[in-house]
TrEMBL record:
SUPFAM superfamilies: Arginase/deacetylase
KW Hydrolase (keyword) present: yes
Name the record gives this protein: Acetoin utilization deacetylase AcuC
Source organism superkingdom: Bacteria
Lineage, uppermost ranks: Bacteria, Pseudomonadati, Bacteroidota, Sphingobacteriia, Sphingobacteriales
Residues of the Histone deacetylase domain: 22-289
Keyword flag Transport: no
Naturally occurring in which organism (per UniProt): Pedobacter westerhofensis
One Pfam family matching this protein: Hist_deacetyl
Gene3D superfamilies with a match to the protein in the record: Histone deacetylase domain
Length: 301
């Protein structure tokens, strides 16, 4: 059975000015349930991530500042909102949901986290609405527990996965791939194992051609046993922060190509949602729901 991490906290602890983009965390599972794509049995509420899991990936001094709520105001501004207990609990549950999802995927082929994709969080910093890096934490969990020896992270959010690149730069067993807007945030890029920076305004045909050419190359380079996929929908032409120009159909085809790659190579895949900032919430939710539909159709058991 396909499992999907979701907790009520995913949508609620943020300041008023950030509520609109967070609505998607309620609306995605609601839409999937309404359409009959999933049932309540597919959803699970993750527990809190243990401290030992945080410290495997993040710097102890940074974690202490998060726990004590002593992170300097300048660093909180870098994150984008003030730190509080609910926000930290949210991040811990998201990261645990991605670990749990990875374990479910290892059994059933695919699993999702309604939130996650917090790829701007580095080993000792938070940034861009990200505090703890869920997929880096989960990848390190799989490696540390000898569950998999070669992992591939496919990050197709419009923004570079700078935190993921930095955190995993010295871990050869985890290959980081980011395809993103070259002139978009973060303006100081880190170095992934493979980065593809895209020009502004790129449309479906060119984007999909680059991805189609790259995916086989990734397999040749790393021979992965497991995939983490960050499926941000801020690549849409409607996105107010993205600067790319994909249609919903193009975004859906992007997802199909990634999932077909996983199916062709018998690779389990955990999927975190990443960004999406279109002015119309329906555009965000529809594109994210397409990711679930395509993934479940191709890889669901």
């Amino acid at each position: 059975m396909v499992k999907i991490a979701y907790h009520d906290l995913y949508a609620h602890p943020l300041p008023e000015g950030h509520r609109f983009p967070m609505l998607k965390y309620e609306l995605i599972p609601a839409q999937l349930l309404h359409e009959g794509v999933i049932t309540q049995d597919n959803l699970f509420a993750p527990e809190l991530l243990p401290e030992a899991e945080v410290l495997r990936s993040h710097d102890p001094a940074y974690w202490q500042q998060l726990k004590d709520f002593t992170l300097p105001a300048r660093e909180q501004r870098r994150i984008g909102f003030p730190l509080n207990a609910q926000l930290l609990e949210r991040e811990l549950r998201i990261a645990q949901g991605t670990i749990d999802g990875a374990m479910y995927a290892s059994q059933h082929g695919i699993a999702f986290n309604v939130a996650g994709g917090t790829h701007h969080a580095g080993s000792d910093w938070g940034e861009g609405f990200c505090i703890l890096n869920d997929q880096a934490i989960a990848a390190n969990h799989l490696i540390a527990n000898h569950i998999y020896d070669r992992i591939l992270i496919i990050d197709l959010d419009v923004h570079q996965g700078n935190g993921t690149a930095e955190m995993l730069q010295n871990e050869p067993r985890i290959f980081t791939f980011s395809m993103h807007g070259e002139k978009n945030f973060p303006f100081r890029k880190e170095i992934s194992d493979l980065d593809i920076g895209l020009d502004e305004g790129i449309e479906d045909a060119r984007y999909l051609s680059i991805l189609e050419e790259t995916l086989p190359h990734l397999y040749e380079l790393h021979q992965p046993e497991f995939v983490f996929y960050l499926s941000g929908v801020d690549v849409l032409a409607t996105d107010k922060l993205g600067k790319l120009a994909l249609s919903k159909a193009g975004c859906r085809e992007r997802d199909r190509m990634v999932f077909q790659f996983c199916k062709d190579h018998a690779l389990p895949v955990q999927v975190s949602m990443g960004g999406g900032y279109s002015p119309e919430i329906r555009d965000i939710v529809d594109a994210h729901c397409n990711t679930y539909k395509v993934g479940i159709d191709l890889l669901g058991d």
